[in-house]
Amino acid sequence: MRGLLPLAAIVVMSQGAFAQEYPTGPITFVVPFTAGGPTDTVTRLIAEPMGKELGQQIVVQNVGGAGGTLGATQVAKADPDGYTLLLHHIGMSTAPSLYPDLAFDPVKDFAPIGLVTSVPMTIIARKDFPPSTLEELIAYVKEHKDEVTYANAGIGAASHLCGMLFMEAIDTELVTVPYQGTGPAMTDLIGGQVDFMCDQTTNTTGQILGGEVKAYAVTSPDRLGNLPDVPTTAEAGLPDFQLGIWHGLYAPAGTPDGALQKLGAALKVAVADPTVAGRFAELGTAPVAADEATPEALASLLSDQIALWKPLIDAAGAKAQ
C-alpha cells in the first residue's frame, strides 16, 4: 500500500529518533564488585564527567559476588537500551577460563564502549611482617609456605590473579585466604589477620602512604610518581613479573548505535578531564589516551587477553567450584 512505509524504513526512523533523544533518564553503571574497591573507585571517577556530558545522572550500582560474574550477568541480560552499563576490569577476560558454567559470553553478549585505565598492582604486607624487601619476601614465603597467608578478594578478582602469577613466578604454592571483596581483605591485612596480598594502586596507595601496610614493589615498568620509594618488580628481583589491571566500559549486545556513540563520546571527554587525570595520578594510575577509549581498542584487548589467560589458568587449575 502506498500509504505505508516499508518496515526497514520505520526501523531506521525509530533508531534515528532514539539516537536524538537518548538519554532521557538516569543511567546505571554496574560495578561487579563491592563498594570501596578499586573498580568502584575507577567507576565513580569517570561517572561524574560522563554524566555531565550526557546531561543525566549516572548511578553507580555495586553487584558483587562470584568474582564479578554476578554483576556482569545482570548487565548481559539487561534491556539493551543504553541505560544499564558494566564497568569491569581484566576479569572479563579471565572469567571464561575460571568459570566453566559462565552465564554470559564476554564477546558475544556485550557491546564494548572503550577502555578507561590500566592500574598497576602493588605487593604489600601487614606492617610488622618480617621481610623488608621483595627479595627477602620471596625467600621468607618459600621457607614458610605452609604458614604464610595470602589474602585475595575472591576468585577472579585482581588480587587473585596477581597472587596466582606471583606463585607461578616464585614456583611456590601458598596458603590463600579468599574474601568477599577487597575491602574486607584490606581490613584484615591492616589488622594483622593475614600476611600479604597484591592489589591495585587505587586501593593500596592511601594505606601505603599512611604507613598502614608495608610495600615491596609495584608491577609497572617504571616507578610511580606518587610512590617514588617503592621499587618496580624488575628492580626488586622479578624482571618478568608485570601486571596492569585494565578497566573497560560495556553495554549489553544489541544496544542501539546512537546510544553507543553518545556514550563513547562522553567517555572520551571523561578520560581527557584534567580533574579525572589528577585524581587518577594520586592513585598511581592514569586514564587511557582518547584513541584507546574506543570500542575497537577494548574489543581487541579483550580478545587478546582471553587467549593470554586461558593457558595460564588451565595450567594452574584455578577453576571456580
Please characterize this protein's 3D structure.
With 321 residues, the protein is α/β, with parallel strands linked by helices. It has two domains: 7-118 and 245-316, 3-Layer(aba) Sandwich (D-Maltodextrin-Binding Protein, domain 2), CATH 3.40.190; 120-236, Periplasmic binding protein-like II (D-Maltodextrin-Binding Protein, domain 2, 3-Layer(aba) Sandwich). It has helices spanning 7-21, 38-54, 69-76, 91-98, 134-143, 158-170, 182-191, 201-209, 233-236, 257-271, 274-282, 295-316, and strands at 27-31, 58-62, 84-88, 110-126, 149-152, 175-178, 196-200, 213-218, 244-252. Strands 1, 2, 3, 4, 7, 8 and 9 form a seven-stranded mixed β-sheet that branches. A two-stranded parallel sheet has the order 5-6. Strand 1, helix 2 and strand 2 form a beta-alpha-beta unit. The longest helix has 22 residues, at 295-316. It is globular and about 75 Å long. The model has no long low-confidence stretch (mean pLDDT 92).
Instruction: Give the SSE string.
Output: HEHEHEHEHEHEHEHEHEHHH
Number of helices: 12
CATH superfamily of the largest domain: Bordetella uptake gene, domain 1
Q: Uncertain spans, ≥5 residues at pLDDT below 50?
A: none
CATH C-level category of the largest domain: Alpha Beta
Overall residue-averaged pLDDT value: 92
Family: Belongs to the UPF0065 (bug) family.
Keywords: Receptor, Signal
Organism: Amaricoccus macauensis
InterPro entries: BUG, Bug_dom1
List the helices and strands and how they pair.
Blueprint: H1 7-21, E1 27-31, H2 38-54, E2 58-62, H3 69-76, E3 84-88, H4 91-98, E4 110-126, H5 134-143, E5 149-152, H6 158-170, E6 175-178, H7 182-191, E7 196-200, H8 201-209, E8 213-218, H9 233-236, E9 244-252, H10 257-271, H11 274-282, H12 295-316
Helix pairs in contact: 1-10, 2-10, 4-12
Signal peptide: 1-19
InterPro entries: BUG (IPR005064), Bug_dom1 (IPR042100)
Protein name: Tripartite-type tricarboxylate transporter receptor subunit TctC
